[in-house]
Every structure is written in structure tokens, then in C-alpha cells.
Amino acid sequence: MTFRVALVQTRTPATHAAALAHIVPLVREAAAGGAAFILTPEGSNILEKNRDRLLPQLTLLADDPVVNGLRTLAAELGVWLDIGSALVRREDGKAANRQVLINPRGEITATYDKLHMFDVDLPTGETARESATYEPGNRAVVADIDGARLGLTICYDMRFPAVYRALATAGAKVMTIPAAFTRPTGEAHWEVLLRARAIETGSFVLAAAQGGFHEDGRGTWGHSTIVAPWGEVIARLDHDEPGVLIADLDLAEADKARAAIPVLTNARPFVGP
Hints:
Blueprint (H helix, E strand, L loop, with lengths): L1 E8 L6 H17 L4 E3 L11 H4 L10 H13 L2 E10 L5 E8 L5 E6 L5 E3 L5 E3 L11 E5 L2 E5 L8 H9 L4 E3 L6 H19 L2 E4 L3 E3 L5 E3 L3 E3 L5 E4 L6 E8 L1 H9 L2 H4 L7
Helix pairs in contact: 1-3
């Protein structure tokens, strides 16, 4: 099975209205390029690192204006549209960093709440405390799109290989890794981690990224990337500007990689040290 995918790279603004106006032309460009499946980055609906300004703007998923605008757009264009994540309010009032898969009829068919929270003090002096704002998810998610099985993950999840092994053993051959990666860690680790996750699982990796310097003062790495199951980069944006990246995926390549290096079937249980 071969199908065309597109990654949308954004520099998401700090309000829903501006975010929707920013992303719609990029999604239209991706669809015009023939993509049947379009992935957007983490935080596609709003990016604001000041939680006192962010939290009052968050809504339930059903009420989010960017999500609803993109549902309408997916139905108009007749494409699968994966919102890499929308920052939303949960029913219990807490916030979630949630991936949202939309089918060509504009219906939400799967959601995934980010498992791993990025809590860190970087050498640059920048700090991040995702757990202060978001409630982490507690389950891994696979989803089917017209014969292809996706494994849904978000950004920092990429540093936890066990998640990808679980998704691959559940049949996923395409891993989504939408991100808002920091610039220092992006320069050092972005590509090598994406290639490692592809090689370890014999899967395609789709990594749509935020890029550039944002209204809220953060800087993100960009460089959206598509990796094949053998680990080679087959498409990449070599910059941090908004844009669209398109590639054709042949899912038979995942079967070939897994047959050549059968780590998913050769793994053995063991007693830890």
C-alpha cells in the first residue's frame, strides 16, 4: 500500500483565531499537493507558555475553534487530518495536550493525550514544567486510516522507546511525532532520535514541527522530517519557517525492514539487574 502524506510546519500564534488563520492555508497547500493524510505539529491550536494567559483560553475539545475549523476543512478537502496536538481543557477542568485524528468526513476518530511531561532545566537557563499545566495521559493509542495503522505520540514521548515498541507490536507501521522541540535539544537530538525510533521498530516516522521564534518568546527547532523504516531520512525541511513537506510512503517497506531485522519477534523477557 502506497499513500501520500504531508507534514505542516507552523509557527503557531498565542490565540485561537490567529492560529486558525495561520494553519488553514498550509493545510490547503498540503491537500493541493495530493496528500491523503496531513499531520500538523504539537500545539497547533494555540501556543502560549505563560499559563496564566493560556489556561483561560482553553476550551473543551468539542468547543475548540481551531479543532472545529480543521474538522470542517478536512471534510471540505476530503483528507485525513491529524492535529498533532490541541491544547484543551478536560472535562475535570485540567488541561490536556491531545492529538486529534479527523477523517475525510470531518469526524474525530481517535484522540491521544501526551504520556510524558517535559519537566527540565536546560543548560541555556530555559526551564519547562509541562506537568504544572497538563495532566498526562495513561494509555498508548493506535488508529487506522484506510488500511494504514498509526501509532500516536507527541514530542517528548520520542525519548521513551518502550512506547514505540508497544505501538509497533500492536500493528502500527507509521509513527506520528508532532512536536514543539526546543532549539538546543533540536539541534543536538532531533534527527538522531527520529531515526532511532524508525530503526528500532521498522516503522515510518512522521515528525511535524513548530519552528522559529514565537509570540510567547519561545524558540522551536522546526526541521520537520519523514524517516523510512530502514532509518533513512526521505524528506526534510531544512529550516524553521512555516511550510509543507510531502512524501509517498510504501508500507511494504515496513514489512521488509521488520523481516530483515526481526527485533519485534526476537525480543525475550529478562530479569532486571
